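A further point concerns the way the authors explain their paired sequence and structure data. For illustration, here is how one protein appears when written out as sequence plus structure tokens:
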Amino acid sequence: MGITITPVDQASAGFAAQVAGIDIAAGVSLSQAAVIEEAMDRYGVLIFRDQVIDDQQQFAFSQLFGPMEQATGDIAQSSERRLSMNINDISNLDKSGKVLARDDRKRLFGLGNMLWHSDSSFKSIPAKYSLLSGRVVPERGGNTEFADMRAAWEALDPELQDECRDLVCEHSQLYSRASLGFDNFTDEEVKKWQPVWQQLVRTHPGSGRQSLFLSSHIGGIRGWPVPEARMFLRDLTEHATQPQFVYIHRWRQWDLLMWDNRALMHRARRYDHTVARDLHRTTVSVGEAASG
């Protein structure tokens, strides 16, 4: 059976598709990976159902698409981590697997994932793809929403496009978390997440389409007063996350979602904080895909 890729039938911009004919646990060939990457250029979000995998298998699959990031965006100290540095822990669990208390610092920091963002935009070399495996998912809530920054850019008035085109923005996790009132960072964390500069408008290397590079991690625009910059960015985000640009994913256990951070923003949604939610994320950095 070959790979089949079917667009999701949803009242949206049609940038999500479901992939069948792939068994990630059994291994994926370079030719299959090439088909997946071509589909990523076309869509932006791919859904792989019923992928019962472990972290090693997820990491091996992710490596087919480029150099890998380490999970340096987490707030947990190395001694407190549940997972290896190859895996981002997108959960509400502590090291022993228990649900975190409501006021736990790790949980409060993680609430930033409910803001619209692009993974690793706060790193000097940002993310290419994110791959998120649903190991334990709540019965209700906890959806992940995606917004198509290509379609949002194309829908802007030409005059506003011209205003955006050469802007450079300042990104840091210090900004996104502080917007929620989480600002008790250690000196080490402040040093770790010093702001980096990113272009607001980018051209996707695979599709050639331009897109907005928005994120809750943005705290300013080079050369602009901060209040004016943040108001301008808020207006752009409101535009870019209108329903016609958004796909809502309702999780099933063992879904694997793969998305392109160069073309999309995303956010998690609320769920009952007393029940477990355990998702494992691998992240491919911007760069050339592996060969061999």
